[in-house]
Amino acid sequence: MSTPGTSQITKAPDKGIFPLDHEGLCKSEMSSYMSCLMANNSENSKCSSEAKSYLQCSMDNDLMQKEDWKSLGFHEEDKDNVKNAT
Question: What positions does the domain CHCH occupy (predicted)?
């Protein structure tokens, strides 16, 4: 808690925040990912291909900065399993 009259400096996170998909450009990818999570008791490791598809769609539609898979925590050998959002 800050003391009255002082301000707290905050910094946005480097990753994890990107614009909302107001136009629904990646709605099907997001729905597939959420369905996978629900079907797998929220174990995201079982939904990595769906997560990648959703992130790829977000990057392709400028909803997030383009990143390589390794920096997003994915293995390079899995990058070909991503469904392209075209």
Answer: 26-58
